[in-house]
What does this fold into?
Amino acid sequence: MTAFGELPVLDASRCTRCGDCVEVCPTDCMALAAAGPWLPRPRDCVSCSACALVCPTDALKMPGAEHVEPIQ
Ligand code: SF4
Ligand code: SF4
It folds into this structure.
């Protein structure tokens, strides 16, 4: 949890280490390690969900995102 909201959560079993999430992160708070992305600068995360949205294998989720109603 940051001032902006929740941090993304990784399901490492689904991650192919493609790096798309790291590339798309607007605040550069994410980095790629052997097991997948991690957050060396978690306080810089603005909970924008871009990393989760760009992930081709659904390996990243924003906690609570399933409770958000779609905009009509
Ligand atoms: S975009 Fe998804 S599959 Fe690619 S490195 Fe990030 S978490 Fe892993
Ligand atoms: S939620 Fe946004 S700011 Fe946070 S790690 Fe993902 S892309 Fe970066």
